[in-house]
Amino acid sequence: MIEDLKALYFDQLRDLYSAETQLIEALPKMVLKASNSDLKDAFSDHLEETRGQKSRLEEICARHGIAPEGETCDAMKGLVKEAEKHGEETPGGPVRDAVLIASANRVEHYEIAGYGTAKCYADILGFDEDVKQLDETLDQEGAADKKLTKLATGKLLRDGINEEALA
């Protein structure tokens, strides 16, 4: 039961842990579905970051004497299900790559919102070490989002994956 901000914070940590666990399962599938080598690399790189993010959540939970398991992130479950559906319905190539990027951007935005909220709660509760660790993850999530957007739109004008998908 959530009766105070501390309990809500711990619930949010468990939700994020579930989200990261689900993403660790989903990213290898996205690597396999991607055709663009830079996109494959971006997903592979983010898989390693995600493992580190999950580990940081385990450290935070251990510091507070709580188990990270116990919550299911239904939002991530839906985002992964949608990504899988669209990935299956779209033939391989640039259009599927654009679909994968759109799905991954949605995931990153969800995670940015979740980690931003958790960081705010940690700050209010005076959990300074948690704030530092959550901020590190927020930086990684923001960088991943920017990298995906750059792949989609290219460096100048629209010479990225979205341009290839027009053909």
**CATH homologous superfamily identity:** Ferritin, core subunit, four-helix bundle
State the low-pLDDT regions, or none. none
* Helix percent band: over 70%
Distance between the termini: 53 Å
Residues in β-strands, percent: under 5%
Number of domains: 1
**Cα shape:** elongated
Q: What's the number of helices?
A: 6
CATH top level?
Mainly Alpha
What's the β-strand tally? Answer: 0
Query: What is the CATH architecture term?
Result: Up-down Bundle
Q: Topology as H/E string? A: HHHHHH
Structural category = mainly alpha
Largest sheet: none
Mean pLDDT, nearest integer? 92
How would you describe this structure to a colleague?
It holds the Pfam family DUF892. This is Protein YciF. It comes from Haloferula sargassicola. With 167 residues, the protein is mostly helical. The protein has one domain (5-166): Ferritin, core subunit, four-helix bundle (Ferritin, Up-down Bundle), CATH 1.20.1260. The chain has helices spanning 5-33, 37-64, 74-89, 94-125, 128-153, 161-166. The relative contact order is 0.15. The mean pLDDT is 92.
Summarize the helices and strands and which ones pair or pack:
Blueprint: H1 5-33, H2 37-64, H3 74-89, H4 94-125, H5 128-153, H6 161-166
In short:
By secondary structure, this protein is mainly alpha-helical. Helices cover 82% and strands 0% of the residues.
Feature tags:
167 residues, mainly alpha, Ferritin, 6 helices, 82% helix
